[in-house]
Hints:
The complex is a heterodimer of chains A (615) and B (344). By secondary structure, chain A is α/β, with parallel strands linked by helices. Helices cover 35% and strands 21% of the residues of chain A. Chain A has 21 helices and 22 strands. In chain A, the strands form five sheets. In chain A, strands 11-10-12-13-15-14-20 form a seven-stranded mixed beta sheet, sandwiched between helices. In chain A, strands 3-4-2-5-6-7 form a six-stranded mixed beta sheet, with helices on both faces. In chain A, α6 (166-177) packs across α8, α9 packs across α10 (271-279) and α18 packs across α21. The longest helix of chain A has 20 residues, at 197-216. With 344 residues, chain B is of the alpha/beta class. Chain B has a domain at 13-215: Rossmann fold, CATH 3.40.50.970. Chain B has helices spanning 30-40, 79-89, 101-107, 109-118, 163-169, 183-195, 217-220, 222-228, 277-284, 311-326, 331-336, and strands spanning 51-55, 70-73, 94-100, 123-128, 174-179, 200-205, 229-231, 239-240, 246-251, 254-259, 298-305, 341-343. In chain B, the strands form two sheets. Chain B has an eight-stranded mixed beta sheet with strand order 2-1-3-4-6-5-11-7, with helices on both faces. In chain B, strands 8-9-10 form a three-stranded antiparallel beta sheet. Chains A and B meet through α1, β9, α9, α11 and α13 of A and β1, β2, α2, α4 and α10 of B. β9 (234-240) of chain A pairs antiparallel with β12 of chain B, so a sheet runs across the interface.
Amino acid sequence: MNTNEQVLQEVVIKFAGDSGDGMQLTGQQFTNNTALLGIDLATFPDFPAEIRAPIGTMAGVSGFQLHFSSNKVYTPGDSCDVLVAMNAAALKANLKGLKKGGKIIVNTDGFDSKNLRLANYPDGVNPIENGSLEGYEVTKIDVTKLTREALKDIAELGTKERDRAKNMFVLGYIYWMYNRDLKSTKDFLQEKFGKKEVILQSNIKVLQAGYNYGDTTETFTTRYTVEKAKLPAGKYRSIMGNQAVTMGLIAASEKSGLPIFLGSYPITPASDILHDLSKHKAFGVKTFQAEDEIAAITSAIGASYGGSLGVTTTSGPGMTLKAEAMGLAVMLEIPLLIINIQRGGPSTGLPTKTEQSDLMQAYYGRNGECPMPIVSASTPSDCFEAVYEACRISVQHMTPVIFLSDGYIANGAEPWKFPQSADLKPIDVKFKKGLDEGEEKYLPYKRDEKLARPWAVPGTPGLEHRIGGLEKQDITGNISYDTDNHQHMVKTRQAKVDKIADYIPLQTIDSGAATGKVLVIGWGSTYGSIKSAVLDLQAEGKSVSHVHLRHIRPFPRNLGDIIKNFDKVIIPEINNGQLVKIIRDHYFVDAIPYNKIMGIPITKTELVDFIGKMC
Amino acid sequence: MSTSTIAPQTLTAKDFVTDQEVRWCPGCGDYSILAQVQKVMPTLNIPKENIVIISGIGCSSRFPYYMNTYGMHSIHGRATAVASGLKASRPELSVWIVSGDGDSLSIGGNHTIHLLRRNFDVNMLVFNNQIYGLTKGQYSPTSEEKKVTKSTPYGSIDHPFNPLALAMGADATFIARSMDRDVKHLQQILIRANQHKGSSFVEIYQNCNIFNDGAFEVFTEKSSKADEALFLEQGKPLVFGATQNKGIKLDGFKPIVVEIGDKYSIDDLWIHDEADFYKAQILVRMFDNPQNADHLPRPFGVFYQTERACYEDVMAMQIEEVITTKGKGDLDKLLRGREVWEIA
């Protein structure tokens, strides 16, 4: 048959199905295949908190959105060009995110009366039969039947096992549609099921069957190609946020000479860092799955006291439990990295959905005057550099540091022009090795020009000393309840954190002029949406610039000066307005918040609307 | 716990005294415990710089400030968790945890049981005074029922913990009890605790003379000690009494007090075996209220000791094994990952 070939600039595709349908894996495979062709991309996995939510229901829908393009990609896309719906609930949940005239590929078997009922369609209503999808380009495939058919000769498999390979059929079909090679997924299957020959062969067979189905039927007459993106020259790999955190930690360990000790308690969406780090024992990494969040952080404090790079990973509720121990680390003035992969709150909230609502907690959420530096990451790959920077600050300034990421960055993927280890700036750390000349007694709270105290670890003769959570006299570290001393110490701990501003880069303007009408300030995972919205507005000739913060405490020294050069400041956040309050407090500027608290990223479109009206 | 012996310069108790003024109430049992620890430390052959004392919060937890070693006065209930991280990352250090009944069994109860099951090679000293002293006199998780305190004016309705039974339940590998007033016994137990490779759980009865004076006096006072305290010795029969005239015999699984004389001889008595897991379960349950008629005496000494792999050793071993089979981690390989593409 004749198929046309068409070259597209960009595509947004969403794979949606029941959480047992393997949509995350399908999406990841298509992502890898896309990345290897040098096409730029961003992903947005979106899945329920329940491991096995009721099958077929709206609550059980799991989705994976991928935006790929031959241009630079900043977001997973506001709306989809293509929706793959494995059942009725998946269609219902995602139809509103599909562009008018978009393509829908449905598994007809997922639209039987039971599935329709579970998706709460009225009796007798089947959206793929009643004309309600007019205006979309619908392709109906009985994926279940075709998968079973493809496996009919493999006698060892039961129906359930056969049906489990459905996602491979879809993947094969999409590979055909986008003119792809199956090799990356075949390699993946080989690695995953290499020892289970039957499972391996059946998956490959179904994958191929899906591809052949596209090739031999006339469901689509056009195949599409997206050319590779014009990214800066270099070597790339695909990276997810939590993966980048792991690598940043290991890199910081290698470049500082400090072994990593991770104390962690499993919590969504941070657990992958624990999983990932525990694979890397070859780097001497020690991972400790503690009995609770408190033991997770306090064990890391113990390890830091012993001279390790103490790290703890968590998400919002765990952060709350760690608050007292963070205060201890502030008093002890020892290095410690607290990684918070934020999720929807309060309380248990929305465990698998994204939010930026722990900024105030990070900033203020401890008893007493308890300042801690805060570093945040803006994209999956940015997690690497941001964590590396957080480690540097922690060990060089003798302070616990909070690193903020969120579920969107943690699970999202993008191409990454990865660095060479030789390019990473070493992190200089000096333990105190003994008494200096003329020094009679070790003074644990004698400070250097950064106001950092010396790091003397147990096992060092002559430096035996005691530290603790009680207020202490400056220099000697002895317990002190003296009124003047307490005031002095509170001010000193604050000054120490403020002083970090002298050791971090000045704030740069991400896009736009240094003066103008509107300045959009963002932090964290809103980067892509703000970036693309601002670029669009600039292209329309609007006077708008974008600043994206990595350092939230302390702010870069020049941030106030940048702000002064604009008439208006807009701060979009996935919370009820948190950075906006801190910026107002610091710079007395009437910053305008834009808030979305729906557990999903802010879209470019809504930002273009909102910001566009202001400039 | 045990520590490899590198011959340090000869130290004395004085070397372990700090310049900090000791601020416990005059007459507090903590003074004796501090003195015994300072006395025992120089005999352990551990370089002073390798000793770390970690405490939580409470009267007992001021301990590190008075010991001229490395030390951390951490937060309430978490000394065990801090010590776990330190020991996991620095197995060569001699780590001592100093805690109280509230710190280790109430707010920190969770970490205590997990420390014991993991069997870190540390020594945990629990100063049990059956009261909250630092907060000025509320009942603790070891206070007896009906106890009248500031927070229980009509008497406590809480059933108390039996700390050693709890340790046994958490699979502790060394379980012992001593008391502040018997300095020789306490010194011996501290030495034994240090010799043990694994988590050593040592309960020390400690008198709070301000808020719970005399809580243990039946065990510590000369007039009653012989009849109320039963001192365990490895391989020896369980005898007690002013003239060593009484003993414990096992009647089935039930310990009973017998008079040594016409009816029973020493040979009828329970012979203490620290390695006997099942008998140790009975021994830790000899926890009668001394006010009750026909109560059993309270045992002191090493109840149980066994060998089990220590967390920090297995942790280090696993890393070595991975490095042996996979080779040392290569950062560039990690950064590159498995699939790379190049853009010219």
